[in-house]
Specification:
Elements (H helix, E strand, L loop, with lengths): L12 E4 L7 H14 L3 E4 L3 E3 L9 E7 L6 H13 L3 E6 L3 E3 L6 H9 L24 E6 L3 H6 L4 E5 L2 E6 L2 E4 L5 H6 L2 H8 L4 H14 L9 H24 L1 H14 L10 H8 L3 E5 L3 H4 L4 E2 L2 E6 L5 H7 L1 H9 L4 E4 L8 H15 L11 E4 L21 H9 L7 H12 L5 H15 L2 H15 L10 H13 L17 H17 L5 H11 L10 H24 L26 H14 L4 E2 L10 H7 L6 H15 L4 E3 L2 E3 L2 H14 L7 H22 L10 H14 L7 H30 L3 E5 L20 H17 L2 H10 L5 H16 L1 H6 L1 E5 L1 E2 L6 E8 L2 E8 L16 H4 L3 E3 L8 E4 L5 E3 L1 E3 L2 E5 H4 L6 E5 L2
Parallel strand pairs: 1-2, 1-19, 2-5, 5-14, 7-11, 14-15, 16-19
Antiparallel strand pairs: 3-4, 6-13, 8-9, 9-10, 12-13, 17-18, 20-22, 21-24, 22-23, 23-29, 24-28, 25-26, 25-29, 27-28
Helix pairs in contact: 1-2, 1-30, 7-8, 8-9, 17-19, 17-22, 18-19, 18-22, 19-20, 20-21, 24-26, 24-29, 25-29, 27-28, 29-32
């Protein structure tokens, strides 16, 4: 076992999406390549047992074993050994918030369905056993049916079966347990004819009657004492074994049971024949229902609104221990060296969970020399503008969505905002402010997808209001309305209050006040006292007695667990698919209202990051981003040419008008969707020329993306209520405007413009790569993005990656770097920039330098560098300084206005005129060496400062990484 120092802070990470097409063996074969690329830590998607066929691993069904589709224990150990041989770590994506219950193959969930609240695992899942609907008392609503229950039942789609001592119910691919006590209903049916047939004193009949008696005397599933639960489990297993033996040795009993099963399954066309099965199913610990009723009546908490992902109660010590057995063993063995916590906002108490991890790590990893945070942990947390991570979370930072958006916005021309507003307004007729749009979308999610959560909150609040004479007159409807409005106005994903007033973070207090104030302004006709009542409960400042504090805390925790999915579904998965002013800004954690960002503000963010979160991940593409880094980088160029963009869109709309259809009185696609399509085509169009097969695949990708986009928007079609006619019309439109089999006015105008924009987009892409490597944080690379990658949202970004080509090209680059003059190599990379090797070179060279100077990047000061001269606004530069070492990263930005249209990269000296960068040097003639080009540049005095001309930085290569020489 490799000796691991704790904490192990990665120098760089590389994310791999593991599944049946990317196994432990496959990854083992890639480790040598990733090591050569400069990666220090493999970053794996979840690889514990998931739903068969899962391509992402977030639908875990058993966290105690490895996913057999990904590989065996031996395969896994071989991967770990390969990593250790190269002194590489492993960051693992952990899913603590939910488990998959799809197909009912989760053994814990199966046990709950069989035994109800008396199940050993009943407390593992967040189930309301006493819900508002009385018929669901001590039952789980199971919304898996494709039609109404009665229709499904009488169509014989629900089939009872018998298997080796127990009964099951089959529906499509689902296998549901029949509770042991209710099995007596089947075994006792038509018992008299059996007696007449084989005799009342027959030993087999006596054994069957004894089994029936034992089943009837089993403790009820409503019992909750440990003693009766233990008795139920013990006795039901004994009776099952007895029944299995009996049916194995008695053909008469076996035939009797099979005949009863047939009778219970009913006869098509005879509704009364299904009464037996109906009665049996009503006796189960679950209630089968149409999947559409889930939003209103479901009584288990889900991951967002996904019925197949049930939330687990990680706040319970037993749940933490059971679900983390394998994970913590892998950490203790050194196989896993860091954790990425998925959807931390879904947890009941995120701080408590994170503290438990670090407490375990101190005890098990550093017992002799306790470290405050011995385990490297980062959290998937989306921070709103000006929001900080809670100060009591023992983590090393986030997974980097804020870095994605700072870096992306740096390459957006802020001066074009008005032009884009005007253009978007002309295209769609009017622009709804994004804040108003998100408010409406969040309300839609609460009403359409999460109304059951809202109703539960409302009834909890109603009970609390009855506790005080000053609030007892608030009606249930007014309380539910107040909750809905406050959540719709909530400025962040969630707060983290744990009870009382002392433990409330000031940031959370501010967010609650802001939400309530906005809700009151939006509802002038509603008494503000109702909103104030909710606010006071959330802030622990109500007049409730200590006797009712626990009830209040349950409401607060449930409220906090509700705001997060409402915000995520309302903004990321709805509003972002409706607001298309400039889709490069529609990214996870971003605010599309912020059209670009000033370099000074980016410097402030990077400087603050170094001070507080220097080990947070710095991402540019992830498995969750709406568009890859290279798509966004290219689209950002449009902000520099708003008039030309507008002129082209006007021509395209005119040329393609004839391909539109009318669907139920509406034009398909609509203006908004058409505008999204043009941005999508511009961003995703491949750099290489496409043959017929490749082109057909690209068209299909765009069709699939557009249909997904309009489904997510939930206006013209949706996942819940699809409009196949509209979707077909949209797909047809995409196919026709991209038809290149004959003269196509759209393509003739589109392609030259796209090619020009794509060329400038490459500058932005390379700049992003260098910033990610050199800025504070741990650079994170998503699979395949070391070459150009123009992927869209998942599943498009999970397409196979050609690692053989990448490994071959990296080896060739290494050989060329060692044997070819750097200037010649730079020329070749720039000339053949479309193949992507230039991006790989920047990545590998930058990561190699990080490895050689780890302390400089992990502990070095971040120093913003200013430019002087005419083009100073077109350069972004900073230095990292540590104990005499210094490096400078410099990249161009917003270059279309300073580059002649006919000019190809790189940016020559004439472009930069008299522009210089002020360097971290203290005397004339300080030498800096460009790690990419090998050139040495000397500082000179100008205006009392030590500078280097910008033309010298970018003369032969698009970006610069300079190291101070001694």
């Amino acid at each position: 076992m490799q000796r691991i120092s704790h904490p192990r802070i990665p120098l760089s990470t590389y994310r791999l999406q593991m599944n049946r097409t990317c196994t432990f063996r496959d990854v083992t074969a890639r480790v040598a390549y990733l090591h050569a690329l400069g990666i220090t830590d493999l970053y794996c998607s979840p690889y514990f047992a998931s739903v068969p066929g899962s391509m992402h691993g977030y639908d875990v069904v058993d966290p105690t074993i490895l996913n057999p589709e990904i590989g065996t224990e031996e395969d896994y150990r071989a991967l770990v050994a390969e990593l250790h041989q190269r002194e590489m770590g492993q960051l693992l994506d952990v899913v603590p918030n939910h488990m998959s219950i799809a197909l009912q193959i989760n053994r814990w969930w199966q046990d709950v369905l069989e035994n109800g609240p008396s199940s050993t695992y009943a407390s593992f899942f967040d189930i309301d056993w006493v819900p508002l609907k009385a018929e669901l008392l001590d039952k789980v609503l199971l919304p898996i049916l494709g039609d109404h229950y009665g229709v499904v039942l009488e169509n014989q789609q629900l089939q009872l079966g018998y298997e080796e001592g127990h009964f099951i119910l089959r529906y499509a691919d689902h296998h549901l347990p029949i509770g042991p006590k209710s099995a007596a209903m089947i075994l006792s049916y038509r018992l008299d004819p059996l007696k007449q047939k084989i005799g009342a004193d027959h030993a087999d009949l006596l054994e069957l009657e004894s089994i029936i008696t034992a089943l009837r005397h089993l403790p009820s599933r409503h019992e909750r004492s440990p003693e009766t639960i233990a008795e139920r489990y013990r006795e039901k297993e004994i009776t099952r074994r007895r029944l299995k033996v009996l049916t194995g040795q008695s053909e008469a009993i076996k035939t009797f049971i099979e005949d009863n099963v047939r009778r219970f399954n009913g006869i098509t066309g005879d509704p009364r024949s299904f009464d037996l099965l109906d009665e049996l199913l009503n006796a189960q610990a679950y209630r089968l229902a149409n999947w559409r009723v889930a939003s209103e009546e479901i009584n288990y908490r889900r991951f967002f609104d996904i019925n197949e992902l049930a939330a687990i109660r990680m706040e319970h010590p037993a749940v933490f221990a059971e679900t983390h057995t394998l994970l913590l063993r892998l950490v203790k063995e050194g196989a896993v060296t860091g954790l990425r916590i998925d959807h931390v906002d879904g947890l009941y108490d995120p701080a408590d969970y994170l503290i438990k991890l670090q407490e375990w790590a101190r005890k098990e990893l550093t017992p002799d020399n306790p470290v405050a945070q011995p385990l490297y942990v980062v959290v998937e947390k989306i921070l709103a503008v000006n929001e900080e991570l809670p100060s009591n979370w023992p983590v090393y930072g986030t997974t980097g969505y804020e870095f994605v958006n700072w870096t992306n916005a740096l390459f957006v021309d802020r001066t074009a905002e008005r032009a884009f507003d005007a253009m978007y307004g002309r295209v769609i007729g009017r622009i709804e402010p994004f804040e108003e749009l998100t408010y409406r979308c969040k309300q839609l999610i609460m009403q359409a997808s999460l109304s059951s959560d809202l109703n539960v909150l409302g009834h909890q609040l109603n009970v609390l209001s009855e506790r005080d004479r000053r609030s007892r007159d608030f009606t249930l409807n007014s309380l539910i309305h107040a909750i809905e409005e406050i959540i719709a106005c909530f400025p962040v994903y969630r707060t983290y209050m744990t009870g009382g007033t002392d433990g409330i973070l000031e940031r959370d207090r501010t967010f609650v006040w802001q939400a309530v104030a906005k809700a009151k302004r939006r509802n002038p006709a509603v008494s503000g006292l109702v909103f104030d009542f909710v606010r006071d409960l959330l802030l622990g400042a109500s007049n409730l007695t200590e006797l009712h504090r626990e009830e209040c805390l349950r409401f607060v925790k449930k409220f906090q667990q509700t705001t997060s999915p409402v915000t995520a579904k309302g903004i990321e998965d709805t509003a972002f698919y409706r607001f298309h002013r400039f889709v490069s800004l529609n990214e996870v954690g971003a605010d599309p209202q912020q059209f670009g960002i000033t370099p000074n503000l980016v410097h402030q963010q990077f400087k603050g990051r170094q001070a507080r979160w220097s080990a947070a991940l710095s991402a540019t593409s992830t498995h969750d981003t709406k568009r890859s880094e290279d798509v966004r980088a290219r689209l950002n160029v449009l902000s520099e040419v708003p008039k030309r963009w507008n002129d082209h869109v006007v021509r395209w709309r005119k040329a393609n008008r004839r391909f539109k259809s009318e669907v139920q009185g509406e034009t398909a696609p609509g203006q908004n969707e058409e505008y999204l399509l043009y941005q999508t085509l511009l961003g995703a169009w491949p750099l290489e020329r496409m043959d017929e097969d490749a082109y057909a695949q690209f068209v299909e990708r765009i069709q699939r993306y557009m249909i997904k986009a309009v489904k997510e928007a939930k206006q013209l079609t949706s996942w819940v209520s699809p409009d196949s006619e509209y979707e077909e019309a949209l797909g047809t439109f995409v196919g026709k405007i991209l038809d290149r089999s004959e003269s196509n006015a759209f393509l003739e105008d589109f392609l030259p413009f796209q090619e020009e924009i794509a060329q400038f987009g490459l500058y932005n892409s390379l700049s992003q790569v260098l910033l990610k490597i050199a800025a504070p944080g741990v650079p994170d690379f998503y699979q395949g993005t070391e070459l150009w990658d123009f992927s869209l949202v998942d599943p498009d970004n999970r397409r196979p990656v050609d690692y053989e080509k990448r490994a071959r090209w990296l080896a060739e680059l290494k050989t060329a770097s060692e044997s070819t003059a750097r200037r010649t190599l730079m020329g070749e990379l720039v000339e053949h920039r479309l193949d992507g090797r230039i991006k790989m070179f920047v990545t590998a060279e930058g990561l190699r330098y990080r490895k050689e100077h780890a302390q400089l990047f992990q502990r070095g000061d971040y120093v913003p560098l200013e430019g002087i001269g005419v083009q100073r606004e077109h350069i972004f530069a900073f230095a990292r300084i540590f104990e005499g070492e210094a490096l400078v990263a410099a990249v161009p930005r917003l270059v279309t206005s300073i580059v002649p249209a006919a000019m190809t990269p790189p940016l020559g000296e004439k472009i930069w005129a008299d522009t210089h960068i002020v360097m971290p040097a203290w005397k004339d003639g300080t030498i800096f060496r460009n790690r990419f080009t090998g050139e040495e540049l000397s500082t000179a005095s100008r205006e009392g400062k030590q500078v280097i001309p910008a033309g010298g930085l970018f003369n032969i290569f698009p970006v610069a990484l300079l190291e101070k020489q001694f």
